[in-house]
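Lay summary

Proteins are chains of building blocks that fold into shapes. Our project writes down both the chain and a compact code for its shape. Here are two examples, one after the other.
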Amino acid sequence: MRPVYLVCGGVSKFAKARPEVTFQAMVKEAYDYALADLGLEFGKAAELVDASVASYFSDHFMRQLKAGSMVQDYLGLCPKPSRRVEGGGATGGLAFQSGWEAVASGRHELVLVYGWETMSRVNTWKGNEFIALASDANFDYPVGGFYTGYYAMMVVRHMREFGTSLEQMALVSVKNHGNAVHNPYAQKRTAVSVEQVRAAEMVAWPLTLLDVCVMSDGAAVVLLASEAGLARLERATGRRARPARVAGVGGGMDAMRMADRPRGEVMLLPHEKPGDYPGLKYPGVHSFRAGRMASKAAYAMAGIGDPAAELDFVELHDAYTSSEIQTYEDMGLARYGEGGRFVESGRPFLPGLDYGVALPEQGRLPVNPSGGLLACGHPVGATGLMQAVFALWQLQGSIGRHFGNERLQVRNARRGAIHSHAGTGTYVVVSILERAFP
């Protein structure tokens, strides 16, 4: 298995609606940005790229099958090989790992991964119906299988099991919206308070509108390379790239119906021991076993023993404030049951920003410094790739150049994690990125 590097990336503006562009043109916005950042001409890129992966969740939003082939043609990459990857909310992260596999296996030297979603093309109620089809359409969907209801149920159990509070969930929203104020690509760039989160319109108790991510239009692309691919790019551009190495990848799955998920012992990470969780019914509906599986595999590959001590930042799938807290625990950033106290401590906030709340341990391990899905938006096929782009910029120390300010730059970032999640934890993937240049 060969080393794989994330060389460059680009994102379009994420917005509630982008009616002025087709999905092909929106992907090209992100692609052109990535090429310009690398110093690579459009025509030359078409010669150098060996293959691509298309990432989009639902054909329904576009009323178009085989849309990946249309983007491939628009980017000038025909007749190079391509494939489409789909896996609910984890689509972008799965596509990233599919591109990694194509390079790590030795099949290709340079692989482009592009993702998008145009969710505004349908009414919100219809969009929610399409998303709900990612539940069991024979069992869950007919009895109201809409995801905010699922996540409300899960966090109520988390609250009962562990004492997680409404204010702790609201702090996740305060953090991520506060970060996005400084991210020009984010869909929602307005700071909020705990009081505003709790006073917002209720969607499914206890989740309000400010606890929930929104549907979006947007695109993102990344370019993955082998060492031979890096050399090829250097010859073409006359300069060395500043890449991140993909140090670890992991994935996990669980039964789509939560009622089908067995109960057993907690899957332990290297820094945990069997006596840490006496009597915990795992995974229950309060935890995502697939997320623990993905994290464990990625950490093992990257040689990480204690993620809270060895990661400099995390971009994770915060479709809901509650799921961010649950994912702290699945990823081992906090023990099971301590995710609420983790955010309350201030550890996942960025240092140096004023969020309007007291945070005794502010900035120990920034989580979603970009603003996450809650504030950036969630154009599903692009989301996991957006995380990879922002992670690369963090590791390059180039957030200031790309965002126009350095407020969200994690200082001296050497290693970060990206995390994509689908359904109620049906698919989860985790990838570890490390700085790979002097």
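And here is the second example, written the same way.
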Amino acid sequence: MGLTHIEATVTGPSGSAVTVEFLIDTGAEYTLLPHEVWQRLGLEPKRRMGFHLADGTRVERAISECHIKVGEFDGHTPVILGEPGDVALFGAVTFEVLALVFNPFDRSLRPMTSAPLMQLSA
């Protein structure tokens, strides 16, 4: 099993931008911004949510939103506001916002070719 990182530019409400190296985490629902990044961007908490880590530990973190750009793909996404020591994670909601999918065989991001709302079977 390998780890995959990508670079993305994250922009806050004031227009300040930071390029961040994210670990792609297909098991994470939301993208997580490290403490120093969201502080620099001037993001403000909008609410708090609970999350379970891979080891079963439950943590609470604040949620906000920002603009994110990966290559030619960009959009507005919810983000977890990390606490000191948290690492940058790129989560599933941001994949969907940007219409990207992760190919686990070559560990690449690709454009979503179709997004069916529901598949019918006979």
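What can we say about the second shape? Strands lie at 5-11, 17-24, 31-33, 47-52, 58-70, 73-81, 89-90, 100-103, 108-111.
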